[in-house]
Amino acid sequence: MTRAGLAVLLLASVPGAAADPAGEDPGFAERVPEPAPIVDEDEEFAQPERQYAFNPVQARNEFKVGIFYSKKGSHRAAAKRYLEATRWDPGLAEAFRRLGMAREKLSEHGEAANAYRRFLEIEADGKAAREVRRRLARAEREAARGSPPLAGNAGSRQRPPTRD
Description:
Elements: H1 3-13, H2 26-30, H3 56-72, H4 75-88, H5 93-105, H6 109-122, H7 129-145
Helix pairs in contact: 3-4, 4-5, 5-6, 6-7
């Protein structure tokens, strides 16, 4: 017996392996693919609530990564890292100062003011306290104004929209 004949004989003896006259496997035609589960786009980014315990080593690591992002110009990423650092070590005053600076650059003046206030609660007489008080006053003024100034366009006029 040849190999081809043996293969035909084996396929014929296996139930459901024989093809129907249309050339399709009847077992395959009956299977309906299951629909993929619907996932909300925001669920991908949702993370479970994290429990924070005092961990100065983790706080320092997050702080250093925040400095890296600040130097790179990624102020949103830096602000997230500084915020993480303050959660791991609520007494890390420098992280609050840097968080305020990052939030100012993001035009989140109310949040920047909150970070500066927290810094001053921790280090009211520290080296940077004078600078932080000045920044706090500016952030409070901008937050009260409600509309942040346009970054990079200070003093310049914008063109009115043109009609088509």
